[in-house]
Amino acid sequence: MVDLIEKKRDGKELSQEEINFIIEGYTNGNIPDYQMSAFQMAVFFQGMTPSETANFTMAIVKSGEQVDLSAIEGIKVDKHSTGGVGDTTTLVLAPLVAAVGVPVAKMSGRGLGHTGGTIDKLESIKGFHTEISQQEFYDLVNKNKVAVIGQSGNLTPADKKIYGLRDVTATVNSIPLIASSIMSKKIAAGADAIVLDVKVGAGAFMKNLEDAKALAETMVGIGKSLGRKTMAVISDMNQPLGFAIGNALEVKEAIDTLQGHGPKDLHELSLTLGSQMVCLAGKADTPETARAMLEEVIANGKALEKFKVFLAAQGGDASVVDQPEKLPTAKYTLDVEAKADGTVSEIVADSIGTAAMILGAGRATKESTIDLSVGLVLHKKIGDKVKKGEPIATIHSNHDENEEVIQRIYDSYTIEEGHVERPTLIYDVIK
Ligand code: URA
Ligand code: CA
Fold first, then answer.
1. Cα 213 from Cα 178, distance rounded (Å)
2. Which of 205, 271, 279, 200 is nearest to 234 (CA)?
């Protein structure tokens, strides 16, 4: 290992065999944390070549089990977002693309963060559960084109160990390490094709477009080298996506979007990502054709119908789709009002996300419990005019004391005089 650390430190390329040695040795405990730490810091400064990055990814995949989705008909396309605040796209996309025949075999976790994971969000629907057998999962996807199963099995143990170490050695922010970490999980989960939503902006890992493009190109390169059709959309995370940040609140927002009257940015990003998924699944030749197909199933109600079928098939009360008031609701709602006239010029996404977490919408640690009913609904986004006293956001809370959350919302919003451009939503598509 000391020779390999030295080789990487000096900027030389490691062979596939050498990379396998490192990942296998670290996973089984033969290589200690201090050597892996030094190696990762060498990667942080020297980077990795495309072939090293692909080999590193595959070695992580091979460190654990790999899901076999071959019992499901068709090309299984997975979507991954590099993380943002209030990102409701998965809830919209699963029924939307399934409604045009793309198989959605979604494995999902709970995780930590501002709001719950996809499974937590869906559990705000009474009766819905993801504890289904592998066979039931395959059967449901073959029958309905969409199902969600909780993550089980020992996938990418090397990534868990490496990520934990990166977190405490200042080596998280390395493009080859981020790219291999994300792609290893998608490949181990059995995807044939992968659509990536790489976020850029103040609320994202990548703060500028150049870095976001480099990350996207690295991930697309890994996917292609490993035989998975892969493409990436670079989208804005300078403010939260949509209006809702919270679990049941985001389910409601997804329903609105499937009905065609969701927030503009969530609608647009869902159609952009969805079009790419439909193309990779071989159901359309161009993104334009795919988009028209998706717009049609929104307009004729088939996407919404698919959502109901999906929920009911996993025990959920599908009547919430027509009666969203049946979703869990918080005891108190409280408007946060603008202190002056002007135009919104900034909404610090991270800080808004933390406000939702303080309300109980997300987990700060693995032990935290989630309150599905609470969160925030924004009324004003960047570029919107506001009048003094007008609500900029509504807090949904189960506490009667919300000073900290109110203050955070005020701190997150900047309201200026004059005109402010709305941020671009889609910056680029990398194929
Ligand atoms: N998300 C991941 O899964 N891995 C990283 O390294 C960064 C973000
Ligand atoms: Ca949202």
1. 13
2. 200
**Vertex 74 angle, CA 71 and 79, to 5°:** 100
Measured torsion, CA atoms of residues 114, 155, 28, 19, in degrees rounded to the nearest 10: -90
Given the CA of residue 172, which atom of ligand 1 is nearest to it?
Answer: 6
Q: Tokens standing for 89?
A: 């796209």
Burial class of residue 209 (count of CB atoms within 10 Å of its CB; 0-12, 13-18, 19+): middle
**Residues 177, 45: contact at Cβ < 8 Å?**
no
Q: Which residues contact 36 (CB under 8 A, 6 or more apart)?
A: 22, 26, 162, 165
| Residue 389: burial class (beta carbons within 10 Å; 0-12, 13-18, 19+) | exposed
Q: Which token pair is 215?
A: 């990350």
Mutational test site, ligand 1, from 163, 197, 199, max ligand atoms within 8 Å of CB: 163
Residue 331 contacts residue 318 (beta carbons within 8 Å): no
Q: Which ligand is nearest to the CA of 82?
A: 1
Successive 10-residue mean pLDDT values, the chain, 431 residues: 98 98 98 98 98 98 96 96 87 98 91 86 96 96 97 92 95 96 96 96 90 98 97 96 96 98 97 98 98 98 98 98 97 98 95 95 89 98 98 97 97 96 96 92
181 CA closest ligand 1 atom index: 4
Which residue has its alpha carbon closest to ligand 1 atom 3?
Answer: 182
Q: Which residues line ligand 1 (CB under 6 A)?
A: 163, 177-178, 181-182
* Residues 6+ positions from 291 with CB-CB distance below 8 Å: 271, 274, 275
CB 326 within 8 A of CB 319: yes
pLDDT of residue 67: 94
* Structure tokens given for 235: 């989208």
